[in-house]
Amino acid sequence: MAPAKIAILDPHTADQIAAGEIVERPVSVVKELVENAIDAQARHIKIEIKGGGRDYIRVQDDGTGMDAEDAVLAFARHATSKIRGIEDLFNVQTLGFRGEALPSIAAVARVELLTRPAGLTLGTRIRIEGGRQLAVEEAGCPEGTTVTVADLFFNTPARRRHLKKPATEASRVAGVVERLALAHPEIAFQLVIEGRRSLNTPGNNDLRSTVAALWGLDMGQNLLPVRETIEEGASLEGLVSPPWLHRYGREQQVLIVNGRYVLSRTITREVEAAYHTLIPEQRRPVFVLHLHLPSSWLDVNVHPSKLIVKIRDEEALAAHIGRAVKRALQTPAGVGRAAWAPRSSRRFPAHWAPGSPAAARQQELGLMLREGREERPLGLPGNPAEGVRAGGIHPPPAPPKGEAGAGVSLDTEGGLPPLRAVGQVLNTYILAEGEDGLYIIDQHAAHERCRFERLKARRRDTWPTQVAEPPVLLRPSPSQSLEILTRQEALKALGFIVEPFGTNTFLLRGAPAGVPAGQEREVLEELLQEPEPEDLGSLEERLLKSMACHGAVKAGDPLSPAEMNMLLQELVESPHPHTCPHGRPAVIKISREELARYFHRPQTAGEGGQ
């Protein structure tokens, strides 16, 4: 008889597999335990972790607690106080309901639970190790529940090996606690990492105070209020950043739906669209938005971790939210300080004032060809290469005969022929003539490539530091603070001098030479946005790209003919002129033959003036 191909797993193995679906890493444990505390109506929650949570996690709350019978049942599979029948799945009012968090955690760690409800003088202590119950006993303890998780994945070494460095895991924990605190400003949260307090919120039910505690007083004071009644039973309230306050990434974009942090690309897209032309490209607004919806509008069961929920008429709802944000930006507080129109709409942009980053870029355009190449013509008036006469731009010479055209081309192979600027379009694109056709150059991408090659050529064994005067005060979020502390030595090797200056506060005293003045914060922020690379070389290349981007001319910056030709001359000499360092196209070519076809001209046009 052939052996059976299908077998029922033993309970121990089944429990460990189920645990793997819920407990992926320390942050999963913290999230489940804190959500249980919130559902237990806690008003104070303290989280402590060591070793990134791998060695020790402790979550203490002052919620309702449990008696001995409920405490034992809490570790049974599929036991829950949250739902009683299938209909409850579609009217979930709590953060969790599956009843698998505690047994799943206990299956892969050493767990102790201490709990006492109101009205009892003694509480209950339960100890479980790897899913085996070791003790259930009476114990003295405060009202509420404390869960201690030690040696996570001690019995599943493969999973333990796949955890990241303790600092990385700790940063993830800080991030999820931040979002839970913003979702529940009525609860006081405290996070302690390796014995150091990382996060502390007041629990006074004031969102602005919670933001100030997490992201700094300036952020708390300057965010704009949003409040909107969408329709009966549905409303929006929260805080959004004014146009002058923005970030590189989306870590400080928080959407809460019925007390639960969720991700919605549709809503995020509409909120960011409200800032179109108001903030620089590739920068993101900051927001904390609380959306209150009838439970019938939601399905929270479409994602294992409930990060994504299904919302009825999400597109229409997102558009409504976008309009509410636009109205907030049109208030006096939204337009009062340093808010600006699109740069191309101003003849003399204010941000080009002497000493500004843009003015520095202009000065660089005038000097960049002098660096180590004094013998080279600069393309100033009088130099035929710059294509300008006293009467304006002269007509281009007739192109050579017999050249094969490639039409509109994004070909990145080979170099560029000599180019002559013939104009600028939308203060963003340079039109240039080459011997084989018309070239359209994205001025930012081109300048970024030129800066990158020059910065790379100057690179030596050490990174010189330029002192920031005065030092730049940094007030990152708790999770970002951990990133800075973790990478402090690597940052120092790159020329960043960052000193702790209190809880989640730092002084940036210096930055690598070459970082544009006034943009030290942005370059550091962008560097920390990406995952920490394995080697310093990758971090150095990322820094060079960031420095090149931040110092380059921007879309909307008007350039003189001489400045355009200076940029074109350097781009022609670049070993990789067709793209910026990030891989975005910098040059499009329309061949001479393709131009003739567009205008129904004979391919030999140019000889007889036809």
Average pLDDT figure? 81
In the CATH hierarchy, what is the class of the domain at 11-200? Alpha Beta
Helix amount: 25-40%
Radius of gyration: 30 Å
Largest sheet: 8 strands, mixed
* Extended strand count: 27
Query: Order of strands across the widest beta sheet?
Result: 5-4-3-6-2-1-7-8
Distance between the terminal alpha carbons, to the nearest Å?
Answer: 92 Å
What fraction of residues sit in β-strands?
Answer: 15-25%
What's the name of the CATH homologous superfamily of the domain at 11-200?
A: Histidine kinase-like ATPase, C-terminal domain
CATH topology of the domain at 11-200: Heat Shock Protein 90
CATH architecture annotation name of the domain at 11-200:
2-Layer Sandwich
What would you say this structure looks like, in words?
With 610 residues, the protein is of the alpha+beta class. Among the domains are: 11-200, Heat Shock Protein 90 (2-Layer Sandwich); 207-335, Ribosomal Protein S5, domain 2 (2-Layer Sandwich); 462-547, MutL, C-terminal domain, regulatory subdomain (Ribosomal Protein S8, Chain: A, domain 1, 2-Layer Sandwich). Helix content is 32%, strand content 23%. The strands form seven sheets. The protein has an eight-stranded mixed beta sheet with strand order 5-4-3-6-2-1-7-8. α13 (443-458) packs across α17 (536-551) and α13 crosses α18. Mean pLDDT is 81; it is low at 338-356 and 367-407.
Describe the secondary structure blueprint for this structure.
Elements: H1 11-22, H2 26-39, E1 44-50, E2 56-61, H3 68-73, H4 101-107, E3 110-116, E4 123-129, E5 132-139, E6 144-150, H5 157-161, H6 166-183, E7 188-193, E8 196-200, H7 207-215, H8 217-222, E9 224-231, E10 234-240, E11 246-247, E12 253-257, E13 260-262, H9 265-273, E14 284-285, E15 287-292, E16 298-299, E17 310-311, H10 314-329, H11 332-335, H12 357-367, E18 388-389, E19 392-393, E20 408-409, E21 420-425, E22 429-434, E23 437-442, H13 443-458, E24 465-474, H14 478-486, H15 488-494, E25 497-500, E26 506-512, H16 520-529, H17 536-551, H18 561-573, E27 587-591, H19 592-598
Helix pairs in contact: 1-4, 2-6, 6-14, 9-10, 13-17, 13-18, 16-17
